[in-house]
Structures are given as C-alpha cells and as structure tokens.
Design goal:
Largest sheet: 7 strands, mixed
Mean pLDDT: 92
Bound molecules: S-adenosylmethionine
CATH class of the largest domain: Alpha Beta
Number of domains: 2
Strand order of the largest sheet: 4-3-2-5-6-12-11
Shape: globular
CATH architecture of the largest domain: 3-Layer(aba) Sandwich
CATH topology of the largest domain: Rossmann fold
Helix content: 25-40%
Radius of gyration: 19 Å
Number of helices: 9
Number of strands: 12
Low-confidence stretches: none
C-alpha cells in the first residue's frame, strides 16, 4: 500500500490533537491505516449507488467507470449485467478490486476489465454508452486535470452517450463556522469523531477523523486520519461540461451529503 505524507490538521483539529500530545499517530485517509476506515464510512452511504443504478438500468451497452477504487460502484454495475471497464490510478486499489472480483460468479467476473490509468488523460481505443465517475472523485483533479478528464470522456462516449458524475456543494444554510465537530458511525457500528475545517468560500475542506473523546483519552496511541477535499461547485462543473461538448441534461440531489454540504449527481450527454 502506498504511503502519502499525512496533512497537519488545520483549525480546531490541530488544537484537539495538541491536547493528546505525542500519543497522536497521523495517517493519510487513503493509506493502509485509513482505507478500512474509508470503507467503513463509505459503506453507510448507498444513496449514490441507488441513483447511479436507476440511470444505468435504462441501458445495456458497455460502461466505463473512472476512479473505480476497490469496486464499491463497480460490483453493483456488474450486477446489472453490464460490461464494465474499471479504470483506477493506484495499483494497490486495483489489487483490492481484483480480490473482490474473484468472489463473483465467473460470468460477472468476465464482464469486468480492470485497467490502471489516469482519468485526466486516457486512451482506451473504444467508446462506451455510459461513463461513471462517482464518490465526488472529480474533486481530486485540479483545473488542468479536469480539462483532460472531460476531453478524454468526450472521446470515449458514443454520440448520445451519458456521463454520470457526482460533486459536492456547500449547502445554502451551511452557516459561517470554519470548524464543525461531530460524530459519525461506520457500517461496522464503530463510532468516529470527525472534525471538518471549511471556512466559507474556501476552495477545500480539511477532514480529520479520530476516536471519540472518551476512547482517545484512554488510548496509548491516538490514530488520526487526515485528508483535504477540494470543493467544486456544481454550477462551475456544469459550465465546464457544456464547454467540453457534454451538456447537462439532469441533476439529481443525493440525500446523504454531510452536515453542511449537499452531494449532486450530474447527468450529461455527449452532444
Ligand atoms: N469509486 C470508489 C468508491 O466509491 O469507493 C473509489 C473512490 S475514492 C474516493 C477515489 C479513488 O480515485 C481512489 O481509489 C484513488 O486512487 C482514485 N484516483 C485518484 N486520482 C485518480 C486519477 N487521476 N485517475 C484515476 N483514479 C484516481
């Protein structure tokens, strides 16, 4: 598993961690220590999968899934009977995906092609009916990366084909607090303390995940996961899509979101 240098948490999280002194062990959310927690939290949110499948159910042609990770969305797409190419940057994530594919019936397994690649510049030499980029992962790319992504997607969609992608917006009633301190429960039932640092207008939100206060107070080591997530307003993304020949035909609000953000699933069509 790759090891990224964990970010130093900003704002309130920095002050909370200072109180735990040298018992704190920092990790990046996508490192070996972070991935099980990421999966535990991601598994509680099935609203995006339901909405994606509702749209995908309308077709039968091949699907390209970008930033597929370990297959949280890939497996449900395969269960619809679609042929799926799963493109992912990191080899260790693809290994996890292959492990999960190995548990499927041979027919479903044979319909999936895992590919290591960069979603901001890829050439698979074929076209698809549907391209999917879920989990608000478009926010992982900067401006140049997004331009490359949209050009690559347009080149891989047949005319009239659909591009489905999710993004996150700050809710209209989000307030002005920079820090928000709250508790969440993973699919396993485990509780996590989450501190989000997101001053109004900031281009990214910092997320720090740690054990609940009582648990941390009693622990010899306080394992802390950090990440920074770029915020990409739906309106801006929609303008970029239209300019790339992918005009938006529908927008679906996802109920999950967070305490002060809303997730939106955008449906664009290759002109
Ligand atoms: N879609 C999966 C899910 O729902 O669990 C994974 C989502 S995870 C938030 C984002 C994924 O994007 C990670 O697996 C990461 O390795 C991958 N990724 C990051 N940058 C990428 C890029 N430029 N091209 C392809 N994949 C990328």
């Amino acid at each position: 598993m790759t090891t990224a240098t964990p970010l130093s948490p900003p704002g309130l999280a920095a002050r909370v961690l200072a109180g735990y002194g040298d018992r704190v062990v920092l990790h990046d959310l996508y490192d070996e220590a972070g991935v099980p927690v990421y999966h535990d939290l991601a598994a509680t949110d099935t609203s995006e999968i339901r909405e994606l499948l509702r749209v995908a159910r309308g077709g039968t042609g091949p699907v390209l899934e970008l930033a597929a990770g370990s297959g949280r969305l890939t497996l449900p797409l395969l269960a619809l009977g679609r042929e799926v190419t799963a493109l992912e940057l990191k080899a260790d994530m693809l290994d996890l995906l292959r492990e999960r594919l190995a548990t499927l019936p041979a027919g479903a397994r044979a319909r999936c092609t895992p590919v290591q690649g960069d979603m901001s510049a890829f050439d698979l030499g074929r076209t698809y009916d549907l391209v999917v980029l879920g989990t608000t992962s478009v926010s992982l790319l900067d401006d140049a990366g997004r331009a490359g992504l949209l050009a690559s997607v347009r080149a891989h969609l047949r005319p009239g084909g659909t591009f489905l992608l999710s993004t996150v917006d700050r809710a209209a009633d989000a307030g002005t607090e920079a820090d928000l301190d709250f508790e969440v429960r993973g699919a396993s039932g485990r509780r996590y303390r989450m501190i989000e640092h997101w001053p109004p207008g900031a281009p990214a939100r910092g997320v720090t995940i740690l054990p609940p206060e009582r648990e941390a107070a009693a622990a010899d080591r306080v394992e802390v996961l950090t990440t920074s997530i770029r915020v990409l307003a739906a309106q801006r993304l929609e303008r970029e899509l239209a300019a790339a020949g992918l005009p938006v035909v529908a927008r679906h609000a996802l109920p999950a979101g967070g305490p002060r953000h809303v997730d939106v699933l955008i449906e664009a069509e290759a002109a």
